[in-house]
Amino acid sequence: MDNRAIGIFDSGVGGVTVLKELQKLLPNENFAYIGDTASFPYGSKSKKTIIELCKKRIENLIDMEVKMIVIACGTATSQALEEMQAMFNIPIIGIIKPTVRYLRDMNFKKIGVIATTGTIRSNGWEEKIKESIPEAKVQNKACPLLAPMAEEGWIDNEIAKLAIHEYLKDIKNIDALVLGCTHYPLFKKIIKGEVGENVDIINTGEMVAREVREYIRKNKMENGNSENGDTQIYLTDLECNFINVAKKLLQAEDVKIQKIG
Amino acid sequence: MDNRAIGIFDSGVGGVTVLKELQKLLPNENFAYIGDTASFPYGSKSKKTIIELCKKRIENLIDMEVKMIVIACGTATSQALEEMQAMFNIPIIGIIKPTVRYLRDMNFKKIGVIATTGTIRSNGWEEKIKESIPEAKVQNKACPLLAPMAEEGWIDNEIAKLAIHEYLKDIKNIDALVLGCTHYPLFKKIIKGEVGENVDIINTGEMVAREVREYIRKNKMENGNSENGDTQIYLTDLECNFINVAKKLLQAEDVKIQKIG
Fold first, then answer.
1. Is position B169 within any domain?
2. Which structural domain, as residue segments, surrounds residue A133?
3. The domain that contains B175 carries what CATH number?
4. pLDDT computed for residue A104 by the predictor
5. Looking at chain B, which residue has its C-alpha nearest residue A238?
6. Which ipTM was obtained for this model?
7. Inter-chain contact A145–B154, Cβ cutoff 8 Å?
8. Edge-to-edge, what's the strand order for the sheet holding B137-142?
9. Which of the residues A54, A143, A181, A240 is marked catalytic?
10. A2 near A66, Cβ under 8 Å?
11. Is the pLDDT of residue A44 over 80?
12. How far is the alpha carbon of A120 from chain B, nearest alpha carbon, in Å?
């Protein structure tokens, strides 16, 4: 039994889509979430910059004595997960591996991946998908404006619709579309309208939450407390739309945040 | 006579709209431009973060032995100009003062200001305008997605049009619209279409270039060389759309960039 919190971080509010799935699946766990809003967006930054930022956020979470860390960010997972796992002596889970496992289990072969510029450029999704499903055909598309739109709260207007149409119009003939950035589930309704009912739209948060549950069970790291867990949210810059978007996402009346870093 | 370069910096490609006006007005000056692409966007960051970033970029420019510095960024001017002028012993010019002087000279009283979230929140434009033109009525609007759209190169599509319509629809009955972020002149055509022919759309780069010319003449700091000057461009992160957008802006066949910081 291990009552310490599970640490989570993202560049901003996107990782809250992962936090939400974790809270759903593991209601009695405690969570510590860092939104690195001072450095948002990660998606347009270089690998080197992302590695520096991830290192700082993981150090923050280790200082809070978390028991494991979830990188709830597609860019950070694809650019820095392996480096962080080599650098720190704490379990670190990203969003790619659990999702690829699901793609393989579901026998998907024609797969679209949308993500930030940095993620697509790193080719991390395609490489990991093809390692696991060699016959897969992967269509990639960078959508650099979607995460900023989500941070702005433009998640269901005509502009979001047009931008998503612009980004998705060339992706054809797929069975599954991976939302390779944790901000994108905020646009799920529009994306579903764009790609049609027959495409499985994959919210990586669900896959990550299952992976975390399995990991803590296997390693006997569950929180022994039977009450509902607590979530602490920290931002590196408080002056942003985080609260409004997070409130919508978590369907919470209020979201309390603290400054860090 | 002073043959050293004029230093310029911005969060990304926006300041190139200022560089372009400077090159036009001062063709035999040398310029050193830093685009802080690793930290883009400045517009959503706090004052404290902006001050830290500006300090680093000014130190970079001082290391290059520039003779003066232009903060070609609305956010950095409104959040950090005074702090930088107090901190460093080198002439530093921002984009607000020269523009306000023009507004006063032109006798504008009904003024719209569009800028990033940080700039609008700081109220820097409105304060400076009212100090100079006490009877002015100022309408402010934060447009946080426009700078990211410019960095993406979406400067003349339907999405940019809709976003600009969304941001400008409540600004009514103005004589002049200040583009309070140096990225916005990239959308000048769309903005003109939105606000109509009778509104003077103010590209701060033009005002800044005049101010710099006046300053170096008055202080006998002109470059004595009669040949065309040289421009060096440095980015803190090379992996971005900077070159494509800058090429369009400067109507140059190629733009050479170097890594810094």
1. yes
2. 96-204
3. 3.40.50.1860
4. 98
5. B46
6. 0.73
7. yes
8. B137-142, B110-115, B176-179, B200-203
9. A181
10. no
11. no
12. 12
